[in-house]
Design brief:
homodimer, alpha/beta, six-stranded mixed sheet
Amino acid sequence: VSATALVAIDWGTSAARAYRLDAEGCVQDRRAVPLGIRHVRDARFEPALAKLLGDWHADPVPRIACGMIGSRQGWVEAPYVDCPASLTALADRVVHAPQDALTIVPGVATRDAAGIPDVMRGEETQLLGAVGPDERGVLAILPGTHSKWARVEHGRIVDFTTFMTGELYGLLIEHSMLGRLAGHEPGRFSRDAFSRGAARGLDEGELSHDLFGARTLALTGGLRSEDVADWLSGLLIGREIRAARAWALRAGIDPSSARVIGADALVERYELALADAGILASHGRGDAAARGLWRIAARAGIVAASVEA
Amino acid sequence: VSATALVAIDWGTSAARAYRLDAEGCVQDRRAVPLGIRHVRDARFEPALAKLLGDWHADPVPRIACGMIGSRQGWVEAPYVDCPASLTALADRVVHAPQDALTIVPGVATRDAAGIPDVMRGEETQLLGAVGPDERGVLAILPGTHSKWARVEHGRIVDFTTFMTGELYGLLIEHSMLGRLAGHEPGRFSRDAFSRGAARGLDEGELSHDLFGARTLALTGGLRSEDVADWLSGLLIGREIRAARAWALRAGIDPSSARVIGADALVERYELALADAGILASHGRGDAAARGLWRIAARAGIVAASVEA
């Protein structure tokens, strides 16, 4: 077994994922702990880090983290870097926890067409891990609670935009009148209901009207109660794709193909809806955060990397 | 005191409002009870009606009701009447509870541009109460959990559309990350924050992106936490107005003026946002449901009305 060169942590609000990387930046080992920053009381981050790392904690290798750990509620605030944000700019603006226990990567900020700020923390690192510094121009998607779409080019995040797709889906299923309609069948997925919802989402319309369709279709026999959740998922993802495509076109980004980053069932749903929208989807590699942290650490001189893998 | 000619009930999911009307259809007395159909167990509607009416129950006058009491979960199902739905069509399609304890008004259904059904129960009666049978053409708004916009003309509902504005607002404030940001100050209203949100809502954009602005603005000092709720309210109402105006234009309805029906603080918010959108707003009369029930009862011959007030 080769020696560990870097401990890399994606430290979010509710969970943390840590990786041990070897001298080539390859993942040797990984662990996930439900120890997000909101579980850390009275700013006791040092013991939280020890708990998170377990027996890795004794290893005297450099450590780097991205995510909410660098927010105002985190250990040390790492102010946002504005778009276009390069690997070098992020590496130049890392901050350090006391006793250099941890190097922390800043988040990235932009403004939308109306001048309203948009922000990410953690996703910038995943984006720069999933898109190589030599790649020319990639439209990258990070599906999730707050989905991000970004243009990544030659190791920099040119611009990005956020959609609260996952959070809205959760709210609707758990707390709304539509959620009460939805029959629960764990593990079941209706491709047909999802696709019908996605078609509605990809079409012109206003979300607060279109959502009501789940109720009226269920009421009039056009949608089975066990398909309501998949229809809503399709509607929300379809609407996100429609709006993101318009955003890309306004920004001069080619929306005919996109790279979806992640490793779960959600990515498959995006791939289905992107196909419905006529967008060629590719699947980004796993462990994008670990790869991005490695690249930033190398650029910052924290690890000696002859080749940025 | 003149004699009671009709007992009229707006019987919804969570609450019921009952009115005693005199021979001219004027409200003599009213009562509101938290005895919506979801509080009625085992279909025991007869005792629920007795409880709702209290000492009015002994009065041997005709009774009529609109709302969810006519749904599949109600006392007797009154199938939807399709748009355009006239006062006469509604009166012709009333159904009767056992022993003629209650006459029940049907709901109204339509289909949107994509062919998806839209429905209302109770609002059809309010619309026909708030717009006189002699009026030529009114764009009417019923703000609420599920806001309705309708074209009402010569005593018929030509078409309508629904927005889940109030339900989304409640979900966001009570259960979302944005709600956790929002400082709570009962009774306070920030006209400025509401108007800024409404401006964003009236502009082009996708809701699931625009909502995220509440977070980024709060994070970057552009919005005080105690103003987050009003900004979100403005955004949602603004977006509803934008989409409803587009709906009206597609349907050949003049959207330059609108009548807002209701009697609470929500109506004031709609009037502010409509003014921001350049739409001339008027305030519909109160007790629209009682007036509508009177008109339907008269048309159905349940009360003898020489003049339909």
